[in-house]
Amino acid sequence: MERMNSEFQTFAEILKRTNAASKAPDFDPSWIGKSPRFYVEANIMQSPKDNVVQLTSNKKKGWFLAAAAILLAGIGVGAFFTFSKKEAPVAEGVLLKAAVVFVKGDAKSIKEAPTQLHLGDVLSEGDRIVTGKGGSIDIGLTDSSVIRIKENSELVLKGLRQTDASQIRLSLVSGRILNLVEKEKKNANYFVDTPTVVAAVRGTSFEVNTSPNESSVYVVDGSVEVTPLINDKTQRVLKVGNLIIVTDEKVEVIEALKKATPDYEEMRINLNGLDKEVLETTQNLKTAKTEQELEELYDKSIEHIIMKDGRELRGVVVSQKKGKLIVQTLKGSYILDETSVEKILY
User: What domains sit in the chain, N to C, each tagged with a CATH number?
Assistant: First the structure.
C-alpha cells in the first residue's frame, strides 16, 4: 500500500508551498478511523483575506493545519470547527404525572392513535389532548393545580417536572384553556405558550385562547407575566381583570374587564376528588411491551377489570388505597374508583 494517497498528496503540496509546515508527515493507514487530538493554546481569529484560520505562532499554525489535512484525508469529507464555551448541564428534574378529574363528551389523548379519555386516566409529559365540539376535560396535577381544556382545543403537556419545586409547561396549539394554579414553593414555575404569546404565573387563575389569527390571556385572580412573541415583545404584567390580545398587527391590553367565572369553582371541586398522595404513587410506574413482562415487573398476575361504564382493562393492580385502584396496563396507567368497578376476573 502507498504511504500517501492522492487526496493527502494535494494537501501536502499546499502546505509545502505556503511554508505552513517544514515537512508534512506521510500518510499512515493506521490513522483511518481514529480521532486526531488537537492542542490549541494560541488565540484564533478569522482572516478576511485568505479565509484561513490564523494562529499567532507559525509553528503552532503548521501543526494545526497539518492535523486538519490529516483529518480531511482520513475521513474523505470536508469539515469545519466550532469553538464555544461549555454549557452548564440542565437540571431536568423528576417526571410528574397528571390525571383526568373530569371529562365530558369528545376528549382524546393522541399517541399512536386517538384514545377517548376517562375519569382517572393518568397522563404524562408529552401527551397531546384534543377535544371536539361539546367536549371538555379537567386535568389535575400533583402540585394541586388543575387545567380545564374547553371544546375544540388542542393542548400538549410539554413539561411536567419536579426539581426543588414543580416546573409545568403547557403548549396550547389551538382553542381555549382555563388554569387554576395553586400558590406553591418560591421556585415553582407554570408556563403556557401559544404560537404568539408566553404566559408565566405563580399562584393565580387565568385563561388562554389561541386561534390562527390571535392569542389572548385573561387574568381572573393574581397576576400573570405575558410576553408576546410577535410585534411589540415587551413583557407585561397583567392584574386581575386585565385582558391582552395579540395579533399579527398589534398588541392590545384591556383593563378592568369583568367576566363571569363559574368554571373555576367547578374545577376546584373536581380537583378535590383527586388525592395528591394517590397521584404521586403513579410517578414511578413502569411500562411493559407484553403482559408477561408486566407480570414480571410487578410480580403480580394479569387481571381482567370490567368497569360499570362497559370498559374493560387488562393489567395489574399495583396498589389499592383510599378507595382507589392503581392499575398499570400495556396502554397506560389508571386511577380507578372502587365503586366504578363492576368486577375483577383473575
Answer: 6-75 (no CATH), 94-272 (2.60.120.1440), 285-345 (2.30.30.100)
Q: Among candidates 199, 239, 208, which has minimal Cα distance to 223?
A: 239
Residue 233, all three cell numbers: 415583545
Q: Which residue has the cell 390525571?
A: 99
Distance CA 119, CA 123 (A): 11
CA angle 31, 37, 39 (to 5 degrees): 145
- Please give the Cα distance from 228 to 194 (Å, whole number): 9
pTM as predicted: 0.70
Q: How many CA atoms lie within 13 A of 162 on its CB side?
A: 12
Give the DSSP letter of residue 78.
-
* Closest alpha carbon to 210 in 176, 254, 249: 176
Q: Determine if residue 115 is left, alpha or beta; phi over 0 gives left, psi from -120 to 50 gives alpha, anything else beta.
A: beta
Per-residue pLDDT of the chain (346 residues; tens, 9 = 90+): 445 555 555 555 655 555 554 455 555 555 554 444 444 343 433 434 444 434 344 444 454 444 444 444 443 333 222 222 333 333 477 888 999 999 999 999 998 789 999 999 999 999 999 999 999 999 998 878 999 999 999 999 999 988 877 889 999 999 999 999 987 667 788 999 999 999 998 778 999 999 988 999 999 999 999 999 887 888 999 999 999 999 988 999 998 677 777 899 999 999 988 888 899 889 889 999 999 999 999 999 999 999 999 999 999 999 999 999 999 999 999 999 999 999 999 8
Give the three-state DSSP class for 63: helix
Strand positions, DSSP E, 182-311: 189-193, 197-201, 204-210, 214-221, 224-228, 236-238, 243-247, 251-254, 303-307
For the chain, give the number of residues. 346
